[in-house]
């Protein structure tokens, strides 16, 4: 019922068209029109119609308009008067206008046919199966020409056949594209005796080829799937040819069975080797993970031992002797208990005990890098304070070097005096100045994980 209604509406539209515009006059151009500009416009009109399938939906008017456009273009190249050029252009434009009307009617009447044609073009049918595609195209032009000649109903009844012809061209093109190489190889195998020497393998290939043909028919837009299918079938065809040749070379009636058994054994060995390789890889990964775990555990133990030693260092100094701090892997001994005489860098005898504690800490963490920085309060000239702070740092270094002995693995990296540049407290109070007078010893163990 729906089809009959559709046909009826199209017939009514066509009848109205022929009654209303079969003798539509051609509009002429104004005398001052620019011929070159108008040629460009009409050419653009033609290209737009071509994109809408006007060449097959209104072949008569599209062809006539195209010929008139060619004439106009030729006249312009010959430098003929614009009047003659515009006359041909007016005829071309009139034909293209009528072609546009018939194209619209054709699109409404033959949507399935046009979609099938587009799909065939996407499948490269014009190149792969040119004869089949051109045959369908000529049939469509013939139907469209009937419509242009006001023979409507009979033409519209052909649309099912037309759609099938384009679909057949599309399918054939897809089959040749995605199965062509495999089928060519299969034909070569048959020429070399596949039916005798690889009968079982040939039968399996033919079954897959039929199934592949069905897949192509039902999944024409699945490009990824079709690409995979081509790869698989090409490989199967190569295998068929290989089995045929190797079976023939055995000289045995059971040649195919011998070849297939050998392949199965090779595949089994390859699978076993792959499994062994996988197991080896997994074992290596496990060993690496275990080594990393052990290394992490070792580092954690070393860090814990290091922290325990830091605690021991802190407990070895009184609050008046030194502040013990940790910054990352560095141990800072802020020696605020050193009792230098005013303006002097000489170490007093009663400070030996404090410096011996520092020596023991350094020796206990050996190998180490040691930096010593002297500081003063803000009294006196800055230049003198800086000189004095350096001399006190040097004095501490000299004492430690003398008491560490030759066997100790200690490097003194930096010895400097900062004077009063880095105060910890206010130089306006006695308490603040006392806090600023200090020597900082930084010990950096070089063999401790952290």
Provide a descriptive summary of the structure in words.
The chain is α+β, with helices and mostly antiparallel strands and 450 residues long. The chain is 70% helix and 8% strand. It is built from 17 helices and 5 strands. A 5-stranded mixed sheet has the order 1-2-5-3-4. Strand 1 and strand 2 (330-335) form a beta hairpin. Mean pLDDT is 89; it is low at 1-8, 10-14 and 16-25.
Q: What multimeric state do the chains show?
A: single chain
The radius of gyration computed from the alpha-carbon positions, rounded to a whole number of angstroms, is 49 Å
What pattern of helices and strands is seen along the backbone?
HHHHHHHHHHHHHHEEHEHEHE
Which structural class do the helices and strands define? alpha+beta
Number of strands: 5
Mean pLDDT: 89
Helix content: over 70%
Distance between the termini: 87 Å
Low-pLDDT windows of residues: 1-8, 10-14, 16-25
| Count of helical stretches | 17
């Amino acid at each position: 019922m729906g089809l009959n209604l559709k046909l009826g509406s199209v017939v009514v539209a066509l009848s109205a068209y022929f009654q209303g515009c079969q003798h539509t006059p051609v509009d002429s151009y104004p005398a001052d029109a620019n011929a070159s500009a108008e040629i460009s416009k009409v050419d653009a009109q033609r290209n737009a119609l071509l994109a809408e399938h006007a060449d097959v939906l209104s072949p008569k008017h599209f062809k006539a308009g195209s010929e008139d456009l060619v004439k106009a273009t030729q006249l312009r190249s010959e430098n003929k008067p614009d009047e003659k050029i515009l006359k041909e252009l007016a005829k071309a434009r009139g034909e293209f206008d009528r072609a546009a009307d018939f194209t619209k009617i054709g699109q409404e009447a033959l949507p399935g046919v046009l979609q099938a044609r587009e799909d065939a073009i996407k499948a490269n049918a014009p190149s792969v199966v040119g004869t089949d595609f051109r045959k369908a195209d000529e049939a469509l032009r013939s139907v469209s020409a009937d419509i242009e000649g006001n023979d409507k109903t009979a033409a519209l009844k052909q649309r099912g056949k037309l759609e099938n012809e384009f679909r057949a061209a599309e399918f054939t093109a897809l089959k040749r594209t995605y199965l062509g190489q495999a089928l060519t190889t299969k034909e070569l195998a048959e020429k070399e005796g596949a039916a005798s020497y690889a009968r079982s393998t040939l039968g399996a290939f033919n079954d897959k080829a039929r199934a592949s043909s069905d897949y192509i028919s039902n999944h024409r837009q699945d490009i990824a799937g079709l690409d995979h299918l081509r790869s698989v079938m090409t490989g199967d065809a190569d295998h068929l040819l290989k089995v045929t040749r190797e079976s023939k070379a055995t000289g045995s009636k059971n040649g195919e069975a011998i070849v297939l058994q050998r392949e199965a054994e090779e595949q089994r060995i390859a699978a076993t080797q792959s499994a062994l390789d996988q197991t080896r890889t997994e074992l290596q990964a496990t060993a690496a993970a275990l080594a990393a775990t052990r290394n992490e555990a070792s580092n954690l133990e070393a860090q814990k031992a290091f922290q325990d030693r830091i605690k021991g260092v802190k407990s070895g100094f009184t609050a008046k002797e030194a502040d013990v701090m940790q910054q990352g892997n560095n141990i800072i001994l802020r020696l605020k208990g050193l009792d230098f005489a005013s303006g002097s860098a000489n170490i007093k005898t009663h400070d030996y005990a404090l410096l011996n504690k520092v020596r023991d800490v350094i020796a206990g963490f050996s190998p180490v890098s040691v930096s010593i920085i002297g500081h003063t309060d803000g009294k006196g000239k800055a230049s003198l304070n800086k000189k004095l702070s350096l001399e006190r740092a040097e004095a501490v270094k000299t004492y430690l070097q003398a008491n560490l002995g030759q066997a100790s693995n200690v490097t003194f990296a930096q010895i400097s005096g900062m004077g009063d540049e880095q105060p910890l407290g206010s130089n306006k109070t006695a308490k603040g100045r006392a806090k600023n007078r200090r020597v900082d010893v930084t010990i950096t163990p070089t063999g401790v994980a952290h």
